[in-house]
Every structure is written in C-alpha cells, then in structure tokens.
Amino acid sequence: MSLRTRAAAYFEHLMKDRPASWLDKAALHVLGLGACIYKAAVTGAYRSYERGSKPVTHLEAKVISLGNITVGGTGKTPMACYLARRLNQCGYSVALLNRGYRSQKEHGMAVMSDGKDILLTPAEGGDEACLMARKLPGIPVLVGRERAASGQLAIDKFGTRVLILDDAFQHWRLYRDLDIVLIDATNPFGNGHVLPRGILREPLPQLKRAGLFLLTKTEGQDADVLAAISRVLRQYNPTAPIAQSSQSACWCIPFETWIHYGTTDWHMPARAGDMQVIAVSALGNPTSFEHTVQAAGFRLVHTMRFDDHHQYTADDVLAMAQRAAAEQAVIITTEKDAIKFPEQAVRQYRVPVWILGIEIEITSGAAEMETLLRSVLGG
Q1: Model-level pTM?
Q2: pLDDT tens digit string along 244-256?
Q3: Using CA atoms, how far apart are residues 135 and 339, in angstroms rounded to an integer?
Q4: Sequence-distant (≥ 6) Cβ neighbours of residue 329 within 8 angstroms
Q5: Given 26, 67, 238, 369, which is the most exposed site by the fewest CB atoms within 10 A?
C-alpha cells in the first residue's frame, strides 16, 4: 500500500470524528486550522468573481457545468456522457470540456476527440477525457484547465453551441447558464467540514448557486435518507429542482472485446454468479464500484485499490496476473481504469481482464430536468 493510500485511509478514519488517540486529536486540531484557512481562501476567491474584481469570461455558446461540492467520485463521468448524448440527440451542437487532470495537456489546450477520431492518449489528455471520447462518437471532447480557452476552440473549430463543463462548479472564471450539482447519496456532505478537515470543497451555503441538483447512487438508499438529503439542499437552495439517479452494471466483456469499441454486442455474462472476480480500481470512491460488482451478481473474492488517477504499469499488470492465478479468479475493472492498462502487458501476462460497463439512469425528476434544460437552451 502506497504512502498516499495509507494517508487517505487515515484521513477517512479521522472523518468519522471519533479520535482514538492523542495523535488523532492532534491531527484533527491541525486539520481544523487548515480548514479555517481554506474556507477563508475559497470564500474570498469566489467573492472576488462575484464582485467583479476578477473578470468572468462570457462565450458565444450556452454553458452547462457539472460539478459537486465534495471531493471524491459522485458519478460525474457517466452523467456528463448521459447529458452530452441527450442534448446531441435533441439536435444541439455539443462539445464536452474536461480539465485533463494530471495529463500532459492539462495546463495547455488540446482536442482529445473531434467526434470521429481519438487524437490523444490517456497520458496526453487524461483518462476521463479519453473515456468520454470513446463513449461519445460524434461529440468533440476537449481538454485543458482553462475552460474558457478550450470552449472558444470548440466554438471556432466545431461550431459548438452548447458547452458541457465537466467538474466545474468551482471554475468561476467562466460564466455558465446552468450549474448542475451532483450529490452522492451514499456520502452527501461528509462530516460537514471543508477541506482538509472534511470533504467539502466549499461551505454548504454555496449550494445556493446550483440550478439543478442530481442525487447520484440512490440505488438501495432508504427513502428517509434521500428525503433528509433533500431537506439539507432546500435549507440552502429553496428553488432548484432535485432529481435522482441510479447507476448499474449494464454489460461486462473481456478486455480484447472492449478495446475494439466499435463492437456493439456487449452484454452481461450468462453465468455471472459463477465468476470469481478481483475488483481492480483507481477511483475516488472504490467502495461504490465494488458494491456495483457485487450487485451485478459476481463473486467478489479480493480487491486491489490504487491511488485515484493512477497510471498503471506493466508491474501492476503482473501483480494482477499473479493475484488472479492465486485466487483462481478474473480481474474486473471499470472503463476508466481499463483505458490506462498497458495493452501489451495484459497480453504478455495473459491477464483475464473483464470490463464492467456502468450506466446512469434518471429515476426521479426527469421531466423537471428536461423542462429546465429546454428553458436554459431556448429550445
């Protein structure tokens, strides 16, 4: 286990607010001081844009932001793909803008996909952007930290009229027509503290800026729990519609089939319950993926967790092969992870890798969401 992974596990322990030792108490005190500094900094940064002392760029296109108020995985990638496909089907000229986190192009600007061909590798443009490009034929995907610049490129190069900003609730320098805030129903607000004392990116009162809330991962959640989350949202934002979504496994196929992404015959194995699997992931919320694996009927016998956005190496693949042999199991992973697997190593070590496809479904509030989008986009 890497130092970063151990630190994350200790941080998760502290978030439970049950200090077990003097070291825990001291750590919480330091994190609390850090949270005070962070809160002042992030609030001041937002107010500088709100007051106009820092410029906000307006583009000649409708801008929709997808984001969250917490760190960690809330399901932004499947929702971004869902929204882009939906608007494209309705006849809008759409482009998706991704930061390209930890990629070579993050601090520049580049086209990951022109809607026809994928032009960058995951290392060049980022794993999330590359995955989106695979899943969104006909829709350009651009990367770069400065979304105003990549958005203008999309307008100039592709004639884009609707820009979808992935993970941009805190990207205040670009004006947006709608902020969609995703709330993870399994852990909506953490312990209520901002970073680094908690998982909030901003204080909860900033939820007032949202134009639409989408509760994600609601499958299996008690109605009372969902109602309690909605009450908190209403406390800070009385008017924004609240929709709900669930995510589930739709197909599971071998790695060699998946890499030829033009193939359409993707389905769940006929006897998933007979498959012993090892869940491999490098995600912000690996537990959610592992629960999805079990919910799909697979027999989960082991997990291998890597740091979020980890770039897999041949040694990692060899370790997977050895664990699979020891457990007499197959490796099961996400599309976001598989896109970073070195293909040659997978073939060389003959690793039995299967890819689990996860899709999002709007289960409540779909009509209100459609009405809001039509109002924003003028259609």
Answers
A1: 0.92
A2: 999 889 999 999 9
A3: 12
A4: 275, 276, 277, 278, 301, 302, 323
A5: 238
